[in-house]
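Bench notes, afternoon.
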Amino acid sequence: MTENEQRLLTRVAAEARNTLPWGWTSVPAPVDEATVTRAEAALGFSLPPLLAALYSRIGDGGFGPEYGLLPLLDSPPAGEPAAVTQYLANRESGRKDPDWPWPEGVLPISHWGCAMYACVDCRTPQATVLLYEPNADEADHAWYVDAPSLADWLQGWLDGTGWYVDANIGIEPEPWADFRIRTATQAS
């Protein structure tokens, strides 16, 4: 992890102590390395280092924008499914409904409400954060680039510059051009 990411973790930890998302009464304890390893084994891919550090150094969800980060492997007190559980369910749903495939390696990390999720593309070096907005007419119009990297996404939360902040209404994320490329080979 870079020095900038280390500083970012410090800022996120401070904000997590001071701001709880809706439905959370406290930030759960961080997960241990064995939990990260179990999560990665269930997913079939590694978590980006910054994402793993959020879970292992700050808490098992319960902080971040809007409803906060989902817990990694176990269900939280707020009633949201864990990130791993949601990913596996989305992949299975995509296999059953090929019109709505779920891209491999795209881990939902935060629920926005109305079935929308912030997701980390664990297949990109920068851990691009994508917005999944399934209220569109078709899957091709349901995916957007929320932030070029997880670090940028966290910075937007800390600075109040994310699209979801009331003062930024009208800021529209760009469509995710790689959606069909990333789902073209999905197994049926």
